[in-house]
Amino acid sequence: MWTGIVSIFPNLIRNTLKEGVVGRAVANGDLGVTLFDPREYAEDTHKTVDDRPFGGGPGMVMMAGPLSASVSEARRLCPSENPVTIYLSPQGTRFTQSLATKLAALPALILVAGRYEGVDERFIEREADLELSIGDYVLSGGELAAMVVLDTVARLLPGVVGNPESIKSESHMDGLLDFPHYTRPRKFGGDRVPDVLLQGDH
Ligand code: SAM
Fold first, then answer.
1. Distance of CA 166 to CAs 4, 24, 101, 151, Å?
2. Closest ligand 1 atom to the C-alpha of 136?
């Protein structure tokens, strides 16, 4: 799978791409990630990506132009046709494991992280196929939300998690939760591993 991530704080994402399951997926070539910084597509010398909201109100709004240009460049560099473009938003559809499974079947995604009060609505209307929320709370930016989506999707890609069986039995995969896990030592303080797990019958 190829992923383009649009963010004005690409370093927040870069470090996450080096570690753990996502890091391994990137290193093995199972997951390609290219970062697009809207500041590089700003039209003025100050690299402006935000402006005051029409109609007043607090905070700044990300301008549609640099975001749209970033998404166009991501689509141009995307190795497959028609990547699905997702704007991370607390107002979006709730992200779930079943949605992650559907996204993992796609060849390419473009994830767009907002900042400040959010992004110009016209950007969403023109470019986003989907608005996704990772929960009913407000983050200061979409980068962590994009990484939540990327991490969840990456571990569902074929070959990324060593034993595919471990994915099947995980929480939320089939409407149930995972079972409790134990490892050595057999006795921790006064707490013993349940006998049924020590009988050698898998
Ligand atoms: N003013 C917006 C509102 O009340 O709906 C919140 C903007 S938030 C401070 C800035 C950015 O963080 C958003 O544009 C979005 O990309 C991201 N974000 C915040 N909470 C999120 C969530 N729960 N899920 C996904 N993205 C989120």
1. 28, 17, 15, 16
2. 23
Q: Report which residue type is found at 12.
A: L
Ligand 1 pocket mutation pick from 134, 138, 144 by most atoms within 8 angstroms of CB: 138
Radius of gyration (Cα) for the chain, nearest Å?
20
Domain containing residue 26: 2-154
Residue 82 lies in a domain: yes
Count CB neighbours of 192 within 10 A: 12
Instruction: Give the count of domains, the chain.
Output: 1
Would you say residue 33 lies in a domain?
A: yes
Reduced to 3 states (helix: H, G, I; strand: E, B; else coil), residue 3 is strand
The answer to whether residue 69 sits within a structural domain is yes
CATH number at residue 24: 3.40.1280.10
What tokens does 44 get? 């003025």
**141 Cα to the center of ligand 1, angstroms:** 6
Model confidence pLDDT, tens digit, residues 59-104: 999 999 999 999 999 999 999 999 999 999 999 999 999 999 999 9
Q: What is the pTM of this model?
A: 0.96
For the stretch 118-145, pLDDT in tens is 999 999 999 999 999 999 999 999 999 9
> Has residue 150 been placed in a domain?
yes
- If one counts every other C-beta atom within 10 angstroms of the C-beta of residue 113, the result is 27
